[in-house]
Known about the structure:
Blueprint: H1 3-9, H2 12-16, H3 28-49, E1 53-55, E2 58-59, H4 65-75, H5 77-93, H6 98-103, H7 105-121, H8 131-158, H9 168-198
Antiparallel strand pairs: 1-2
Amino acid sequence: xxxxxxxxxxxxxxxxxxxxxxxxxxxxxxxxxxxxxxxxxxxxxxxxxxxxxxxxxxxxxxxxxxxxxxxxxxxxxxxxxxxxxxxxxxxxxxxxxxxxxxxxxxxxxxxxxxxxxxxxxxxxxxxxxxxxxxxxxxxxxxxxxxxxxxxxxxxxxxxxxxxxxxxxxxxxxxxxxxxxxxxxxxxxxxxxxxxxxxxxxxxxxxxxxx
Length: 210
């Protein structure tokens, strides 16, 4: 039986189940994956920072959110770590002060953590085969984006005196909409196109670190 056939026959529960006798441990592959996600996220994030920008790393369309969401679903804590770090680089390219990017870390980490947690907790299929899988994906990324949209503009930018009260709603909406639209479009494409391959690879993380 081929790997492709095995992947096609796996249920959502089996995707996440550690089989008897299966050994899973942290390896060099996970460090490499983390570095790749940081690199890809930084490039995509920097590109997004120059498309429909509002300022301070907030944009009306930010494709790098898909790297955060999908990377964490596939690679667990490694994806979350990368998601928290790569915006520091991409925002720096766009001229965002380092202290602002560092203060964004909780928002970026939560945006990655919630999909990773939801798929593992509720046994969602990364291949998005059923309505339930779609619901887990959409709800988890939406909740993450809501948190980020309030944390970034309200907690960070407003607290640092970088936003006026009048501009706050625009930045909150810009963060949320810019992440939500790009996250759905590119996240779905990545999950549907590549999840079947990723879940068969040694890099796939069933728990959090392995």
